[in-house]
Specification:
With 296 residues, the chain is of the alpha+beta class. Helices cover 34% and strands 29% of the residues. The protein folds into three domains: 108 residues; 41 residues, no CATH class; 120 residues, no CATH class. Helix 2 packs across helix 3. It is globular.
């Protein structure tokens, strides 16, 4: 089970054993949405067939936030509200005002919620207190914040801080595209995005394109900055580095796997290999970005 996106945090304080974490998370397990709830959040087992809320392998822990959300499309609510607004107009002789329309939509939503379908999703987090890593598999900051907020409601004595580097990813990526030196552990792949600094913030995106071309150099000289660059680390893992230090589209490449017989063995094998590789990749990423910013 490889993470596809990395939202990276540093553990500043962690005073909790896996058993203590298990006990805390079990108190806030995911519950089904109530009849009038749009969404419910709570902890679930990382493995579908598992019984523990904390999957432990050596020094590493894996947890998962479950989110159940009612599916109530706006188009359905708007259509029902439109029909009722027409009925109201016929009854009162004039079109409903804004407040009446708002009240109609709220009434329709309340009526439809109990009959709405629900869907569930998981957001995983890898915890390595020894190495000081807390990494969330989330494609956007909102999902990461969702997990962290629920974690802080569930446990105490934990402090997390977003990873910060001395050199901003945008500055570093712009330098690499302009011919600057890059560690031999990394290669630049054929995808990048550049954005202008002016008010218009024009954006240029290249896909499957050689990035050392004169055209890209001209864009950089004209004042555009790199916001995304596709990279490969040690021919093992490819990813896209974003200006906010997110790593997305994580793809394992030439990585050897041990033969396994059961789903549990496969899960553990993937988790062990992933954490082992990320423990090497992340320090290398920090290094090419000038090192980790000192905490004041």
């Amino acid at each position: 089970m490889w993470f596809k996106n990395l939202q990276i945090y540093r553990i500043a304080e962690w005073n909790m054993t896996p058993a203590e974490l298990e006990e805390k998370l079990s108190r806030r397990a995911l519950q089904e949405c109530l009849r009038m709830e749009m969404q419910s959040l709570g902890w679930v087992t990382p493995r579908d067939e598992g019984e523990s809320f904390v999957h432990v392998l050596g020094q590493h822990m894996l947890i998962a936030l479950g989110v159940e959300k009612k599916l109530l499309p706006a188009t359905v609510v708007n259509q029902q509200a439109k029909e009722r607004a027409v009925e109201m107009e016929q009854q009162q002789g004039y079109k409903p005002g804004r407040k009446q329309i708002k009240d109609i939509k709220e009434a329709v939503t309340i009526e439809l919620l109990p009959r709405a379908f629900s869907q569930q999703r998981k957001t995983y987090a890898w915890i390595d207190p020894t190495g000081g890593w807390f990494v969330i598999d989330a494609s956007n900051l909102a999902k990461a914040d969702e997990l962290i907020e629920t974690l802080f409601k569930s446990i105490d004595n934990v402090t997390l801080k977003p990873l910060k580097t001395s050199l901003s990813p945008s500055t570093a990526m712009t330098g690499w595209l302009s011919g600057g030196d890059l560690s031999s552990s990394f290669t630049i792949d054929q995808h990048c995005e550049l954005r202008g600094k002016n008010d218009e913030k024009s954006t240029v995106s290249y896909n499957h394109h050689v990035l050392d071309s004169e055209e890209i150099t001209r864009h950089v000289k004209a004042g555009k900055e790199a916001t995304k660059v596709a990279m490969t680390w040690q021919s093992k893992i490819s990813f896209i580095l974003h200006e906010n230090l997110q790593l997305k589209r994580i793809t394992p490449l030439d990585i050897l796997k041990e033969p396994v017989e059961t789903d549990e063995e496969l899960f553990n094998s993937d988790f062990m290999i992933m954490t082992g590789e990320l423990m090497q990749l992340l320090p290398d990423v920090i290094d090419i970005l000038g090192g980790e910013e000192a905490v004041s």
